[in-house]
Structures are given as C-alpha cells and as structure tokens.
Amino acid sequence: MKPYNVHFSYYSEEYGQFDENRYYVEAEDQFEARQKAWEIVDSDDSRRFMSCLRQCGVTWEASPANMEDYLNSIAADYKCRVKKIENVDIPNAKIQKSEDAQDIANGDRGYFLGCLGAVSDMAKDIGRPFGMAPPDLFEELHYAEGFVGEIQNSDSYDHAWLLSDRIEAARKWDQNAMFSLRQLFKTAIPNLTAR
C-alpha cells in the first residue's frame, strides 16, 4: 500500500465559483486510488454543495530509484495541474469576465503542457531503450487495455485487435499511435474522470 492524493474539481453551489479538493488514500496503485477516492467523495457530507464534480488526477511521491514510477509521478502531477487549470482557473476567469485571468490561466496551462512534454522527452531518451512506456500516456495505456478486454467480451475481436495493436505501438513510442490514444481519451471518452 502506498499513499496517494486524489484531486477533484467542482462547482461550489455555496460560493458560486469553481474550486478544488483533494483526498488522501492508501492504495496498491494510482488506479485503485481513483476508485477509493470516488467512494470517499460519495460519502462526504459536503458533496451536496458540489456540482460539475470531476477528478483532475492522482499524485504521489516516488523514488528516483524506480525511474519509471518516478517519471510517471512527475507526468501525473503536470497532467493534474493542467486539469485543475482547465476545470477551475479558466472557468472562474470566465465567471469573473476577466481577460487578464484567462490569459494567465492559459499561459500556465501552456507551461505545464510544455513540462509534460519535457518529461516525456526525457523518458524517451532515458527509458525507451529499456522498454519504458511514455509517462504522459501511462493512464491512457492502462485504461485502453481495459477497453480491449471489454471489446473482446462483446465479441468484436477485430476492433479489440486494432486497439491492442495501437496500444503496443504507443508503448513503443510510435507518434501516430500515441496521438490516436490521446484523441481517444479527449474526444471519444471525454467524461472518463467524471465516472
């Protein structure tokens, strides 16, 4: 078991703006931490004052001795910061009708996306020769593998094979496959973190 922080964004009905919250959980991995955090949120009394609830991400401390987990944790932190900006800072700037706040939020978002790209580039140079998957896609790869199983269960073997092939190519840093997986989670499955 390991400690994780699971970050959420929500609209505060009480204060009329978007806000964030995080829950500390002990779990086997970040994916179990996501589920445990939803269970905590569902039992939280303050939940009734929250709408537009979304999970921004999971963060954790990792040792550089485990390079893959370390780079994944850094990528997860940057992805979480981007989601927080998209789900809290940008909507609040729009509510306040502040172009300056929107510009600052968009600039911060671009900065953290750049940091995420830098972590991926480092991993490509350091870890790719040892079979390390792109850290900026480790969550997408995990959930896409789950989709393969679901697709196979519905007897759509051709579709399952195609997705499985894309996953393997993305693990080997194929840029087209990496782009396809990112798009799958941006457009085809936009509400994955909203359950």
Q: What's the overall average pLDDT, rounded?
A: 90
Structural class: alpha+beta
E-strand count: 3
Question: What strand order characterises the main sheet?
Answer: 2-1-3
Spans of at least 5 consecutive residues whose pLDDT stays below 50 are: 191-195
Helical content band: 55-70%
Account of the 3D structure:
The chain is an alpha+beta fold. The protein has a domain of 63 residues. Helix content is 59%, strand content 16%. It has a 3-stranded antiparallel β-sheet with strand order 2-1-3, sandwiched between helices. β1 and β2 form a beta hairpin.
Quick overview of this protein structure:
The chain is α+β, with helices and mostly antiparallel strands. The chain is built from six helices and three strands. The relative contact order is 0.10.
SSE topology sketch:
Layout: E1 2-12, E2 17-27, H1 30-43, E3 50-59, H2 67-95, H3 99-126, H4 138-153, H5 157-171, H6 175-188
Antiparallel strand pairs: 1-2, 1-3
Helix pairs in contact: 2-3, 4-5, 5-6
List its traits:
195 residues, alpha+beta, three-stranded antiparallel sheet, 6 helices
